[in-house]
Amino acid sequence: MTDGDDLSATPRLATKAMLKHDRVRDVEMLLLPERVVLLNMSSAAILGLCDGNRTVRQLVDRLEEEFDATDLTDDVMSFLRDARGRGWVVVS
Fold first, then answer.
1. Is the pLDDT of residue 1 over 70?
2. In this predicted structure, what is the pLDDT of residue 3?
3. Contacts of 80 (CB under 8 A, 6+ apart)
4. Residues 14-47 pLDDT 10s
5. Domain residue limits at 33
6. How do residues 39-72 score in pLDDT, each as one tens digit?
7. CATH number (domain holding residue 16)
8. Which of 5, 26, 45, 57 has CA atoms 20 to 30 A from the CA of 73?
9. Structural domain contains residue 3
10. Under 8 Å CB-to-CB from 44, ≥6 apart: which residues?
11. Do 86 and 11 meet the contact criterion of CB atoms below 8 Å apart?
12. Within 13 Å, how many C-alpha atoms sit on residue 61's CB side?
């Protein structure tokens, strides 16, 4: 995603970020220094796959299979651009 549209890029969570499930609220959270972001199901699913090993294309394929959906590429790419801009994700 060096140009913003690279399906072969490998996103991973930023070193400062950690995913956690809040059992009390039954919600996924992204923990950052001095900040907690409550995630919806699709955001949590995308971030949960950002391990630095899978390409964006592999993330999209997995999400389309998991959610029985098609054409998620634009949505995933848009989310990853936003997450990268917020410092949640690092892309190589």
1. no
2. 45
3. 1, 11, 46, 50, 56, 89, 91
4. 999 999 999 999 999 999 999 999 999 999 999 9
5. 12-87
6. 999 999 999 999 999 999 999 999 999 999 999 9
7. 1.10.10.1150
8. 26
9. no
10. 19, 28
11. no
12. 7
- 59 burial via Cβ count (<10 Å: 0-12, 13-18, 19+): buried
Give the amino acid at 64: E
| Max Cα–Cα distance, the chain, nearest Å | 40
**pTM of the model as a whole:** 0.90
What per-residue confidence (pLDDT) applies to 6?
A: 86
Within a domain: 6 = no
Closest by Cα among 81, 43, 39 to 63: 43
